C-alpha cells in the first residue's frame, strides 16, 4: 500500500472509534435506558477535555519538545475509546488492545510519532482516562 493509503487508514481510525462509541451508546440506551450510559458519556467527555487540556499545556510550555519528543494527541484520543470499549467484554478488550497496538505501529511506520512519543503520552494520560471513566468501570455495559 502507498503512504497515502496508510495515511487514510490512520486518519479514519479515531473518527471510526467515535462513530462506534455513539452506536454503542445508542444501543445500550435503547436496551437499558439513557441513565445507564450517562456516566459513560460524561467519562468520555471529561477524558477528551483532559487530553486537549494537556495538549494546550504542552503547546504553551513545550513540555514534550524539551525532551525531544512530541505529545501524541492521536494516542491519547485512541486510549480514551480503548478504555471504554475494553471494559465491555473480554473479546472487546482483546480487540481494543490489538487495534490500539496496530494503530501505534502505523503511527510509527508513517512517522507521525516515535515509540517514545506514544509511550510518554500513554503514561501521562492513561491513569487520568481510567480515573475519569472509573465510575462506569464498576459496572459492565
Describe the model.
With 141 residues, this protein is mainly alpha-helical. It contains 6 helices and no strands. Helix 1 runs antiparallel to helix 2, helix 2 (35-61) packs antiparallel against helix 3 (73-86) and helix 3 packs antiparallel against helix 4 (90-109). The radius of gyration is 16 Å and the shape is globular.
In short:
The protein is mainly alpha-helical and 141 residues long.
Strand tally, please? Answer: 0
The gross shape turns out to be globular
Task: Give the distance, in angstroms, between the N- and C-terminal Cα atoms.
Answer: 37 Å
Structural class: mainly alpha
Q: Assign a percent range to the helix content.
A: over 70%
Largest sheet: none
| Number of helical segments with 4 or more residues | 6
**Unreliable sequence segments:** none
Strand content: under 5%
The run of helices and strands is: HHHHHH
Gyration radius (Cα, Å) is 16 Å
What is the averaged pLDDT score? 90
Amino acid at each position: 500500500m502507498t503512504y497515502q493509503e496508510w495515511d487514510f487508514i490512520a486518519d479514519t481510525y479515531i473518527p471510526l472509534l467515535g462513530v462506534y462509541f455513539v452506536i454503542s451508546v445508542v444501543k445500550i440506551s435503547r436496551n437499558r435506558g439513557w441513565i445507564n450510559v450517562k456516566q459513560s458519556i460524561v467519562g468520555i467527555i471529561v477524558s477528551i477535555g483532559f487530553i486537549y487540556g494537556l495538549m494546550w499545556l504542552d503547546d504553551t510550555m513545550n513540555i514534550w519538545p524539551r525532551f525531544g519528543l512530541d505529545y501524541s494527541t492521536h494516542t491519547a484520543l485512541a486510549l480514551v475509546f480503548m478504555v471504554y470499549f475494553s471494559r465491555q467484554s473480554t473479546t472487546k478488550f482483546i480487540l481494543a488492545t490489538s487495534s490500539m497496538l496496530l494503530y501505534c505501529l502505523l503511527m510509527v511506520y508513517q512517522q507521525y510519532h516515535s515509540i517514545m512519543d506514544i509511550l510518554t503520552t500513554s503514561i501521562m494520560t492513561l491513569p487520568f482516562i481510567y480515573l475519569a471513566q472509573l465510575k462506569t468501570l464498576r459496572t459492565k455495559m
